[in-house]
């Protein structure tokens, strides 16, 4: 999951970024609504965490502009404003969820994962593709009921394929959503990590669609 954090409180942004990164979230941050507006329109994120009290304008202003422009990525408002009128303004501008400060980092993580899950059309927190199960709350993976040990990068890659299944995901889409924009890999790096996943999950579970990308499949349905 690749998330943009828009927060002008430096220490809070740093602490939240570190905590989310430890949980396997690929996080990029900015303190400016103007820069956030540019990034949202030029980069690819799975969600945005948006503070409302930004130095260059109210966060609801930027959010409303994104929605008017047809940008529909999930937005979690994170703010000290706890009055109902402020919450109503946030939701009216297009927020998908709203958390007030002070907050528990675990709650923010749970809400982010729920937003991503729902944005892909999934209701249950445990996503299954055949006998492969991915728990969106904990990030754990099991195969035929047995835990699978993955690196952080492998986990992010598999999580995106699970959310997208059975759709084919191109290498470009994986690069945009699974890797930092300053360290986007070439196709060979992605191929290598897909090969490592296949060794752990079975060689036929991730199919290569020539000229298109990769697809995670239910082996029972594929056979």
From TrEMBL:
<dbReference type="GO" id="GO:0032993">
    <property type="term" value="C:protein-DNA complex"/>
</dbReference>
<dbReference type="InterPro" id="IPR039420">
    <property type="entry name" value="WalR-like"/>
</dbReference>
<dbReference type="Pfam" id="PF00486">
    <property type="entry name" value="Trans_reg_C"/>
</dbReference>
<dbReference type="GO" id="GO:0000156">
    <property type="term" value="F:phosphorelay response regulator activity"/>
</dbReference>
<dbReference type="InterPro" id="IPR011006">
    <property type="entry name" value="CheY-like_superfamily"/>
</dbReference>
<dbReference type="InterPro" id="IPR036388">
    <property type="entry name" value="WH-like_DNA-bd_sf"/>
</dbReference>
<dbReference type="InterPro" id="IPR001789">
    <property type="entry name" value="Sig_transdc_resp-reg_receiver"/>
</dbReference>
<dbReference type="GO" id="GO:0000976">
    <property type="term" value="F:transcription cis-regulatory region binding"/>
</dbReference>
<keyword id="KW-0597">Phosphoprotein</keyword>
<feature type="DNA-binding region" description="OmpR/PhoB-type">
    <location>
        <begin position="124"/>
        <end position="218"/>
    </location>
</feature>
<feature type="domain" description="Response regulatory">
    <location>
        <begin position="2"/>
        <end position="116"/>
    </location>
</feature>
<dbReference type="GO" id="GO:0005829">
    <property type="term" value="C:cytosol"/>
</dbReference>
<dbReference type="InterPro" id="IPR016032">
    <property type="entry name" value="Sig_transdc_resp-reg_C-effctor"/>
</dbReference>
<dbReference type="Pfam" id="PF00072">
    <property type="entry name" value="Response_reg"/>
</dbReference>
<protein>
    <submittedName>
        <fullName>DNA-binding response regulator, OmpR family, contains REC and winged-helix (WHTH) domain</fullName>
    </submittedName>
</protein>
<feature type="domain" description="OmpR/PhoB-type">
    <location>
        <begin position="124"/>
        <end position="218"/>
    </location>
</feature>
<feature type="modified residue" description="4-aspartylphosphate">
    <location>
        <position position="51"/>
    </location>
</feature>
<keyword id="KW-0238">DNA-binding</keyword>
<dbReference type="InterPro" id="IPR001867">
    <property type="entry name" value="OmpR/PhoB-type_DNA-bd"/>
</dbReference>
<dbReference type="GO" id="GO:0006355">
    <property type="term" value="P:regulation of DNA-templated transcription"/>
</dbReference>
């Amino acid at each position: 999951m690749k998330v943009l954090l828009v927060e002008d409180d430096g220490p809070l942004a740093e602490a939240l970024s570190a905590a989310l990164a430890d949980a396997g979230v690929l996080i990029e941050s900015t303190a400016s609504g103007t820069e956030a507006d540019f990034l949202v329109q030029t980069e690819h994120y799975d969600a945005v965490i948006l503070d409302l009290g930004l130095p260059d304008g109210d966060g609801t202003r930027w959010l409303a502009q994104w929605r008017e422009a047809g940008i529909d990525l999930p937005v979690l408002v994170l703010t000290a404003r706890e009055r109902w009128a402020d919450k109503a303004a946030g939701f009216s501008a297009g927020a998908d969820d709203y958390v007030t400060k002070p907050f528990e980092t675990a709650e923010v993580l749970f809400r982010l994962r729920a937003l991503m899950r729902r944005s892909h059309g999934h209701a249950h927190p445990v996503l299954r593709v055949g006998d492969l199960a991915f728990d969106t709350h904990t990030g754990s993976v099991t195969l035929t009921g047995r835990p699978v040990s993955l690196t952080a990068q492998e986990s992010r890659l598999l999580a995106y394929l699970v959310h997208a299944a059975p759709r084919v995901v191109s290498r470009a889409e994986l690069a945009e959503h699974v890797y930092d924009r300053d360290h986007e890999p070439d196709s060979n790096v992605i191929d290598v990590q897909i090969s490592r996943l296949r060794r752990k999950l079975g060689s036929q579970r991730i199919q290569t669609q020539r000229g298109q990308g990769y697809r995670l499949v239910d082996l029972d349905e594929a056979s």
